[in-house]
Specification:
The complex is a heterodimer of chains A (200) and B (151).
Chain A lengths: L1 H16 L3 H31 L8 E9 L12 H8 L6 E6 L4 E6 L3 E6 L4 E9 L1 H10 L6 H19 L15 H16 L1
Antiparallel strand pairs in A: 1-5, 2-3, 3-4, 4-5
Chain B lengths: L1 H13 L6 E3 L10 H6 L8 E11 L6 E5 L6 E5 L15 E13 L1 H14 L13 E14 L1
Parallel strand pairs in B: 4-6
Antiparallel strand pairs in B: 1-6, 2-3, 2-5, 3-4, 5-6
The chains are: A alpha+beta (200), B alpha+beta (151).
């Protein structure tokens, strides 16, 4: 009787010492998933922003307005041209630089990231203002790997963690309620979708 | 908690302000005027030179090129990097840039020159007269290893 009890205790111990791969997978999936939330948000938000780079500037808010100044041609040779333009346009910033693109096209750059483009032939003046999108710009810098150095390796690690998350997701639920059942079709759809775009 | 969030936001926002040096930064000991460089470009091919000029336009998509004003009227020089190697800030227009690198010449036929220069003008939102190109030409640009943008 005594021997039997000792054996049974030993068996229970060995069962307890066995690693539950199912539980470990779920725990790792959960914790790595938590860790990846920040990175995933940064990459996905920036991804949407950069995807539409042909339609907008994801790093800067650029606005342009054009006005016609009737007596502009009279001032083409004036040494006070810069101050005249700034005053006419109701601007107040200091001048950063100027440049004659041709005999009739002139560019004036102001300190507050406002630029003035002048066409003396049409007397049209375009005022461009540039404002940074601070948070989105940082997200894009990270996404496009502009930071370089250690970031390259850290984003490699992030990619490895995403691979783990996708594979470990397959083993989250046992049996026919998991990918071995109907849910396997969802996995299949995820593989098929990208190929449909290539074939289209 | 609030102060921590403020510190984090300030750090994030102020981070790019220090990024005024690109690559190795410019080597000021190799300064050559853009007009001198473009007067006899063949003399400077394959030599490291540093040019200086006000930034008059910047690539709006990837910041992969910028155009510097020469010391000579109407003249400019394009500074071009491979996408992502350096990213020139779009709001650096009007600031003075110093770029160290090699002058690169591209031999173009008349048709290719028209197509290339039209594309550049479109990118820079500038006007371009296709009729001004009468024959094939060599287009020069600087391929930099280091750039410094003075504030």
């Amino acid at each position: 009787m005594q021997t039997k009890t000792a054996k049974s205790i030993e068996n229970t111990k060995s069962t307890n010492n066995k690693i539950s791969w199912f539980k470990l997978n779920r725990s790792l999936h959960r914790d790595i998933g938590y860790f990846c939330i920040g990175m995933t948000l940064i990459f996905s938000i920036s991804g949407i922003a950069v995807n539409h780079i042909d339609d907008w500037n994801p790093n800067y808010q650029v606005s342009q307005s054009t006005v016609v100044i009737q007596d502009l041609k009279q001032h083409i040779d004036s040494p006070q041209l810069d101050h005249y333009l700034v005053k006419e346009l109701g601007l107040s910033s200091d001048i950063r630089a100027d440049f004659w693109e041709s005999g009739t096209r002139y560019k004036l750059f102001l300190e507050n990231d406002t630029n003035i483009f002048v066409d003396f032939e049409t007397q049209q003046v375009t005022v461009e203002t540039i404002r940074s999108r601070p948070i989105l710009k940082i997200f894009n810098q990270l996404h496009l790997n502009e930071i370089k150095n250690g970031w390259v390796y850290f984003s490699d690690l992030f990619a490895v963690m995403l691979i783990f998350l996708s594979i470990s997701a397959l083993f989250m639920i046992r049996g026919r309620n998991g990918v071995l059942g109907k849910r396997g079709l969802i996995v299949l759809a995820g593989f098929i979708c990208p190929f449909l775009f290539i074939l289209a | 908690m609030k102060s921590w969030i403020s510190i984090l936001l300030l750090t994030l926002i102020s981070f790019p302000a220090t990024a005024e040096k690109f690559g190795t930064g410019a080597d000021m000991s190799k300064l050559v005027a853009i007009s001198t460089l473009l007067e006899n470009p063949e003399d400077y091919l394959d030599k490291d030179v540093t040019v200086e000029g006000a930034i008059i336009s910047v690539c709006k998509k990837r910041g992969c090129w910028m155009k510097l004003a020469s010391d000579k009227k109407y003249q400019t020089l394009r500074i071009k990097v491979k996408d992502g190697d350096m990213v020139f800030p779009f709001n650096a227009k009007g600031k003075t840039a110093y770029a160290t690198g090699k002058l690169v010449g591209m031999e173009l036929s008349k048709e290719k020159a028209v197509a290339y220069l039209s594309h550049l003008a479109e990118e820079a939102n500038e006007e371009f007269d296709k009729g001004s190109i009468k024959s094939g030409m060599t287009v020069y640009q600087l391929s930099p290893t280091g750039v410094t943008i003075a504030d």
